[in-house]
# Entry
Amino acid sequence: MSDDAERTDETTPVAGTRSKSERGALALRSTVREHVAEHLYLRPQLEAMLGDANWCVDSVEWDGDELEIRGWAITPPDAYAPATFTLDGRPFDEIDYPRARADIGELFWFRPGARYSGFVCRTTAADRGSWPRGFATIDFADRRSLAPFAPLRSFHLIDPDADALPIPEEARRTRVHGNDDVTSFLAQGASAFVKLERALEKSAAKSFDDLRSVLDWGCGCGRVSRYFARHPNLALTGIDIDASNVDWCRTNLPFARFETCQVDPPTGLESSSFDLLFGISVMTHLSEADREAWLGELARLARPGATALLTTQGASALCRSNADADRVARWRQVGMIDVGVSVAASDLSPEPDRYIDCFLTPDYIRDRWSNEFEVVDLLEGYIGNAQDLVVLRRLD
Ligand SMILES: C[S@@+](CC[C@H](N)C(=O)[O-])C[C@H]1O[C@@H](n2cnc3c(N)ncnc32)[C@H](O)[C@@H]1O
# Structure
């Protein structure tokens, strides 16, 4: 009997003549069949969407010159090479990897090995006073060649002695960062800061030192803004709808200017006044209408030729969101999905219903974001090794 015939059978009155145990067996068979089909269809798609090696530093501890990092790391699917972790190209002194990580195994159920992806690495970093601008690069690498498995997926640490700025209180950090670990707040902020400059260098052959004015759109409590203190010749403006975090930034990051903005543009900022505009994890929370309205505002604020760096949630973020087959299929077909109000909405927005989570495909972005900007590049799974970075150039 074909699948269709069987399914019709279950919905006809004939099914009603079956015994209770027969009906139970049929229902179970149908559920199992759906699960198998979903796994057969979904598993290879998620596997491909996760792509290269993926990893994350969850915490960073310093004891004098002794550094310890903890996190998880999944090797590329085709890599049989033993793995290591490097600090500015030098392997850590002690590497305990792989370790059990049941939570990561559950999240990436489709990738063999995820359940044993934990690591703890220790090394002495007595030379940290000489890290350029106070930052070091950590890579997840092939143990024989020391080449990073995924060069764009680096993490960056700040020398704690080179960052004397106040740290926001736990509630503020949790609001923008999703957890209260201060060391990961600093590492994620430092990593985003370094990677934004690398993206600017790659796409526009410029460093932060070449810029006059920069906008941090949706600056929160300054997780990324704080590192611009290293560039006193550049004027940084941070804006956010969260008035309390803007006040915190004003008081504690006095090297920059911070303003509260409304949920709807325009802002009161001057037209054509920035040569770099960036928004980390902001577009990821807006509806299509709000994304387009804010893109228009960013275009107004950008100087001709300016770069805008905006993160979005693409394949890499979707495959760590417990997406089912239906969600993945809709994302592919439509190019974008809004999946409802974000868990953090009530803490974050004066209009919580408008603080959503959305996922966009590269094709959708190239198609929809090309009116006043040119889409120069799209770096998948780049910021936090989870969000995509869209590189835009303001058209003249
Ligand atoms: C996930 S947090 C990220 C904060 C910061 N970019 C960071 O990386 O730490 C998102 C931020 O965007 C802000 N936000 C949301 N919608 C906004 C809008 N339309 N304009 C400006 N900021 C907005 C929120 O208040 C929040 O601070």
Observations:
- The chain has a mean pLDDT of 91.
- The radius of gyration is 24 Å.
